[in-house]
Amino acid sequence: MSKDIKNYLIPDSKKILLDVRTESEWDSYGKPDGEKLGLKTYFLTIKDENFLSEFQNLLINKDYEILTLCKVGQRSQFVAQLLEKNNYICTNISDGFDGWKSFDLPCI
Questions:
Q1: pLDDT band at 5 (very low <50, low <70, confident <90, very high)
Q2: pLDDT in tens, 75-102
Q3: Contacts from 52-56 at CB under 8 Å and sequence distance 24+?
Q4: Rounded to whole angstroms, how far apart are CA atoms 6 and 38?
Q5: Number of domains in the chain
Q6: Could you tell me which residues come within 8 angstroms of residue 46 by beta carbon, excluding any fewer than 6 positions away?
Q7: Is residue 107 part of a domain?
């Protein structure tokens, strides 16, 4: 959950943030600013069956843990499961960007 993120992160940890919401959601509700927490942050919408190949084009090392995020946690759970099937380490932020904002985590 979002409330645990600051305690979960340690300096120089091998974790990244992946926001899988749509462009209209980013424009309407804002974006997480994971960089302020030391998290390299990626924004990749689930548009179609090409999501996995588009993700792999980001060249994220499989040693990194991927924290997945969407609006309320359902799409990001799907993505976490998909990536885990492809040997990535994932943790879903189960309360999504709504939770992120409610715990005053940094936003753009």
A1: confident
A2: 999 999 999 999 999 999 999 999 999 9
A3: 52/82, 52/83, 52/86, 55/18, 55/83
A4: 10
A5: 1
A6: 20, 75, 78, 79
A7: no
